[in-house]
Amino acid sequence: MEAYQDYFNIALIILSVVLTVAILLQAHGGMGSAFGGDTTGGQYKTRRGLEKTLFQVTIGFAAAFFVLVIVNVFLLGKIVGQ
Hints:
By secondary structure, the protein is mainly α. The protein has one domain. Helix content is 73%, strand content 0%. The chain starts with a helix and ends with a helix.
């Protein structure tokens, strides 16, 4: 049963790195916008093409990460509780 815990931990590490990269790829205007600088002048635009796909994939990665964390917690609880 502990072997599954190792697989879940490895999957979480990989997924967290992929999720971080996906989030950083969405940053507009470099690192200035990441720290609160608004380079768009308050304008909003519609996501299209690759930008929309990347946004949707990022949401999928975040949902998968959340599910893996919950499963990992319950699996760890069963192992520790034995």
